[in-house]
Specification:
CATH superfamily: TonB-dependent receptor, beta-barrel domain
Strand content: over 45%
CATH architecture: Beta Barrel
Number of domains: 1
CATH class: Mainly Beta
Radius of gyration: 24 Å
Structural class: mainly beta
Largest sheet: 25 strands, antiparallel
Number of helices: 3
CATH topology: Maltoporin, Chain A
Length: 649
């Protein structure tokens, strides 16, 4: 592990330690204009799902348009600014500074994160480097856990919804002099809806049923002149998709320990461990029998970070840090005959290590805010293996990819100038990088009828980009902003068609993306109005048939408007109109996904001081949202879904 050793003055011996449960903001830098989603939006929304709420930031997308109830967990990758086309996340997601991405797949366990547990969200669009670490070539999402200033000692909600759905969440938040704890439990299940259109259903077609649950415990208390934050979370997620028997499950146990000391010098020490597993059964879309049993994919992520931030001196402050992450994982898969007998067994996986160090200088002087930082990473991939054996363990094919390693220098610079009270200008330039995941390197997968091959020779993705923005505050409660950006992701990893019903993960020359983002926020006496819109021109730049093609699943336009009325009053309302532009299912831009417009709404009526009733509706107009189109074989997203909830606060 890397560390930082500094001779720092101790805080004053009698200085009170105020325990907040919050840690220093990882991203920092007003020059990069993070978008904030507040607590009111997190607690009053139609779906109760964090990934849907994140869609308020135009350009944020999961790989597919379906949410975490009706998509494969390994496809829950995230993207911003048109840098998609891959089921692996190009956006880093952090909860209290701890990375949430799966160590093997690079996907996000959305079902394990309840919005009610989150106090605020910051979304940084554009390359996230420095303290964020490697991986955030498209941006970062920082989630802060709700603390005692937000949570009551006990709170709960239970909702029943369409198609035998039920969702329940409870939080205990005891506190004492010098600390507090939170214990939360969440469960969510339903019979599901038919993702297959009626005209394409067969006897084997089933609704996308789901059942998941999570438990999290967090302790924050004063210790050694600072505060210690200890957290552990268990989750289990089970789904059945499209055909009877096409089940999958994922589970995990994540733990972290963090110590923060605030004072003239801010010290932040973090360590974490992730234990994850995934399994799935693949059913043929022609014979409707089981053809593959991916019976286990155990993986482990170990990480640590140490950081020190200096006091301001003439408006200057210095941030120094180092981090380390180690990922290991292996998939165990059985190919099945028509009789159900195992015909071959595949074992594939490896290990990956990244060691990084960074420094960032911030300047805050009068109307000027500036950030300049750099980062260097040493990465290594080793112990890779791909083995296929017969049921008697006779080798069919064996491969041990060569060990690889390298250096990745990255950096960023940003400038914000408050030219006058109502207007500010921003400029930023940055570079970042992402290592291929163990999944991309070693695991072949099939979404019938297409098989996508792994590629152990994948190189890291490298992004360079720049942006310019203007912020207007014509009135105290009204903020407007516009940002123009250009990004180039060299060596972008894409699923490239190499033959009939066959693709392979490959580095293309580049994925180039440019566009504009518009954001507005108006807070008025009895509510707020938030709007976000983006237009993105994203194209693959490479030789051959892919040159000039739009990345898969990447729309050219996206936008949303959310109106919230009287969030703390007896009757509160929230409504969201969301528009997603057309996209393509495939890299060759043959199979089109039409645009979609959805309307969500929620109404809360507080009948007693701590008891409320909520009526919620997702996709109220029952719009047809096509999430997959493979040569005419279609999957659909969430139809109209209604909820009735009882809330105890």
């Amino acid at each position: 592990m890397l560390g930082v050793s500094l001779a720092l003055p101790d805080p004053a011996p009698n200085a009170p330690i105020i325990v907040t449960g919050r840690a220093p903001v990882v991203g920092g830098g007003a020059a990069f204009a993070p978008v904030v989603i507040d607590r009111d939006r997190l607690t009053l929304n139609a779906s109760g799902r964090i990934e849907t709420i994140l869609g308020d930031v135009a350009g944020f997308q999961s790989f597919r348009r379906s949410d975490s109830r009706s998509t494969n967990p390994t496809a829950q990758g995230t993207a911003l600014r048109g840098l998609g086309g891959n089921a692996t996340s190009r956006v880093l997601m952090l909860l209290d500074g701890v990375p949430q991405l799966d160590p093997f797949f690079g996907s996000v366990p959305f079902n394990a994160i309840g919005p009610g547990e989150v106090g605020a969200v910051r979304v940084t669009r554009g390359a996230a480097g420095g303290a964020f670490g490697l991986g955030g070539v498209a941006g970062a999402v920082e989630l802060d856990s709700a603390g005692p200033d937000i949570l009551r000692v006990a709170s709960a909600d239970i909702a029943i919804g369409s198609r035998e759905s039920i969702a329940a969440h409870a939080i205990l938040a005891p506190r004492w002099n010098g600390g507090f704890a939170t214990i939360s439990a969440r469960t969510d299940s339903g019979a599901g809806f038919f993702t297959t259109p009626a005209s394409q259903r067969v006897a084997a077609t089933v609704p996308a049923s789901y059942a998941n649950g999570s438990i999290r415990a967090r302790l924050v208390t004063a210790l050694a002149g600072g505060e210690v934050q200890a957290s552990t979370r268990w989750f289990d997620d089970r789904r059945e998709l499209r055909f009877a028997g096409a089940t999958n499950s994922s589970n995990g146990l994540d733990s972290s320990l963090r110590w923060v000391r605030r004072g003239r010098w801010t010290i932040d020490l973090l360590g974490y461990v992730q234990r994850r597993d995934f399994s799935t059964v693949v059913v043929s879309s022609s014979s409707f029998r089981r053809v593959l049993n991916q019976r286990a994919t155990p993986s482990t992520g170990l990480g640590a970070r140490a950081e020190a931030k200096s006091p301001a001196w003439h408006g200057l402050s210095l941030r120094l840090g180092a981090d380390a992450r180690r990922s290991t994982g292996t998939t165990y898969e059985d190919s099945l005959a028509a009789s159900g007998a195992v015909t071959s067994e595949r074992q594939a996986g490896g290990r990956q290590i990244d060691l990084g160090a960074y420094a960032e200088l911030d300047l805050l002087r009068g109307p000027l805010t500036a950030t300049l930082g750099g980062r260097i990473d040493r990465w290594r991939e080793y112990a890779g293996h791909i083995a296929i054996v017969s049921p008697t363990f006779a080798p069919i094919s064996m491969s041990r990819p060569a060990e690889r390693s390298g250096w990745l220098p990255t950096g960023r610079a940003g400038l914000r100038w408050q030219a006058a009270r109502p207007i500010a200008f921003r400029l930023a330039a940055y570079s970042s990088a992402r290592l291929p995941t163990l999944n991309e390197l070693y695991r072949t997968f099939t979404v019938f009828p297409v098989t996508t091959l792994a590629n152990a020779d994948l190189a890291p993705e490298r992004l360079r980009g720049a942006e310019a923005g203007i912020e207007l505050t014509p009135a105290r409660a009204l903020t407007l902003s516009a940002t123009m950006f250009t990004n180039r992701l060299a060596g972008a990893i894409a699923n490239v068609t190499i033959g009939p019903n066959q693709r392979q993960r490959r580095n293309v020359d580049a994925l180039a993306s440019r566009g504009i983002e518009l954001d507005a926020r108006w807070r008025f006496p009895h509510g707020s109005l938030a709007a976000s819109w983006t237009a993105t021109h994203a194209r693959l730049r490479t030789s051959g048939a892919l040159d000039g093609k739009r990345p898969a699943q990447t729309p050219a336009m996206a936008g949303s408007v959310t109106l919230t009325l009287d969030p703390t009053a007896t009757v509160a309302l929230s409504g969201t109109l969301r528009r997603t532009g057309a996209a393509f299912e495939d890299d060759l831009n043959i199979d089109r996904l039409p645009p979609a417009t959805t309307i969500d709404a929620a109404v809360r009526w507080t009948v007693l001081p701590r008891i409320a009733v909520e009526l919620r509706g997702e996709n109220l107009a029952d719009a047809r949202v096509i999430t997959r189109n493979q040569a005419g074989s279609i999957d659909l997203g969430t139809p109209r879904t209604l909820w009735l909830a009882l809330v105890l606060r």
